[in-house]
Every structure is written in structure tokens, then in C-alpha cells.
Design a protein that fits this description.
Elements (H helix, E strand, L loop, with lengths): L4 E12 L2 E12 L3 E5 L6 H9 L6 E6 L2 E2 L4 H6 L1 E4 L11 H11 L4 H14 L15 H13 L5 E5 L7 H14 L4 E6 L5 H4 L2 E6 L2 E6 L1 H8 L2 H8 L5
Parallel strand pairs: 3-8, 3-9, 6-7, 7-8
Antiparallel strand pairs: 1-2, 1-4, 4-5, 9-10
């Protein structure tokens, strides 16, 4: 039996004035798959992710999370989705514990369940030592972990993460990779990056976007084999405008 589709883009287009940022993007991601969303800066990765999460409305096309149209029923879709934007919104004067409590209450989570989930995500994201320190005093690596804990708080089935290792040092990047691999055992994940070294350690599939269009969809090893290396594949796929 085929696995249910958890992330679906159907002919997604997004136009800003005269600029077409996303051009007829279509793909499906089944349950339990970790997919790297690869492409150069300005290729349309972030816009596509915002369309998938319902953060912005498409000019044309449709996005579904767990079969739910994100524009027609954003609240129900949001219950199944955890979204980590590149620069996650955090309140600097709050502690991670206070922030998670605030977001959980905003989601309408019951007090007992919320306490359990806060304890779980603090452990999962290794935040115990900083749980009561103001966010403003934390390193970028810890702030990224707080953002990830917030995205995981309601235990979503689907995770969409935009450049989760941006600006982190090698040790912090390694920690985020390990966390993504662990989460990938139980969740469907789409993680965007323009860093080639991020692909093979975490993903079983690559979606490569260039000039607003999907130009490759498949196994990262095939992408590397057909072009010699992932770096050469990157150059080949972005050599000309679509």
C-alpha cells in the first residue's frame, strides 16, 4: 500500500508585480520522507515554503498539508504542520520556557499536555541548561534550537524548515543534522538549503529549484553520479535561466 501524501504542491505560481518568483511548481512528498529543497539564493525556495505553509497565497495553484488545502483551511493545516522560517520570530525578553508556554497557550493546548510537550521538546532540542535564560542572552545556535522547539511543540506530522543551519558554526550544524535525522524517523520533513554538504547527511531525496522551477527531483546520489559531484550538479543545473 502506498504511503499517504503529506506535502503536496499543485501548479504553484507566485507573482510579485512583474516578477514571477515561483513558476508552476508541482511535487508530492509521502509520509516518512526527508527531502532536501536545494537551490541557489533567490531561486524561489523560501517563497515556495511560504506557499506550502499558507503564509502567503499563491497567484495560481494549490498547496496541501496532509491532504488539507492550506488556503481553504489554514487552522486545520497548521495543526498538522511545524514551520521553522530562516529567522524564526522569538521574543528576546522571554525565556525558552516562557516562550514555549506562551505559544502552546496560543495554540489552545491543554495545560497538562502542554507541560508534557514542553518537557519533551526541551529534551529533544537540548535546551535544559538555558530554559530559564532570556532568549536575548543565548547564542544563535541555541536560538535556532528554541525556534525548532517551538515548531515541534504541538508534535506535528509535517515539518518544513527553511535554512535551519544558516549562520551556525560546525558543531551547531552537526547538532541540527543529528536532530533532523532523529525527527525523520517519525515525521515528514522538507528542509531547504543552498549548502551542498547539507544534502547527503539528512535527505533521501532532492528537489532542486532554479529560476522558480523544479529542475531535478530524485535521489541525491543519482544527482551526484550524473554530474560527477554535487558541486558540479549545482553548477550544471544553474548555468542557464529556465
Amino acid at each position: 500500500m502506498s504511503k499517504p501524501v503529506m506535502i503536496e504542491a499543485v501548479g504553484l505560481c507566485k507573482q510579485f508585480g512583474s516578477f514571477l518568483a515561483v513558476r508552476d511548481v508541482s511535487f508530492t512528498i509521502p509520509k516518512g520522507q526527508v527531502v532536501a529543497f536545494l537551490g541557489p539564493n533567490g531561486a524561489g525556495k523560501t517563497t515556495t515554503m511560504r506557499l506550502l505553509t499558507g503564509f502567503v497565497a499563491p497567484t495560481h495553484g494549490m498547496a496541501r498539508i496532509a491532504g488539507i488545502d492550506v488556503q481553504a483551511d489554514r487552522i486545520q493545516a497548521a495543526e498538522r504542520l511545524g514551520y521553522l522560517p530562516e529567522n524564526g520570530p522569538l521574543y528576546p525578553d522571554m525565556t525558552p520556557m516562557g516562550l514555549l508556554k506562551y505559544f502552546g497557550e496560543a495554540r489552545g493546548m491543554r495545560k497538562g499536555h502542554l507541560s508534557e510537550r514542553i518537557e519533551a521538546v526541551i529534551g529533544l532540542c537540548s535546551l535544559a541548561t538555558v530554559a530559564h535564560k532570556p532568549v536575548s542572552k543565548l547564542s544563535k545556535g541555541y536560538r535556532q534550537r528554541v525556534s525548532m522547539a517551538q515548531a515541534l511543540l504541538h508534535d506535528p506530522e509535517v515539518l518544513i524548515m527553511d535554512e535551519p543551519t544558516s549562520g551556525l558554526d560546525p558543531n551547531q550544524i552537526r547538532g541540527v543534522r543529528q536532530l533532523i535525522r532523529e525527527l525523520g524517523k517519525t515525521k515528514t520533513i522538507l528542509v531547504s538549503t543552498h549548502i551542498l554538504q547539507e544534502v547527503e547527511p539528512v535527505a533521501s531525496r532532492v528537489l532542486f529549484i532554479h529560476d522558480g522551477r523544479i529542475v531535478f527531483d530524485g535521489d541525491p546520489n543519482r544527482l551526484a553520479t550524473e554530474n560527477g559531484t554535487l558541486e558540479e550538479a549545482f553548477y550544471t543545473l544553474t548555468a542557464q535561466p529556465v
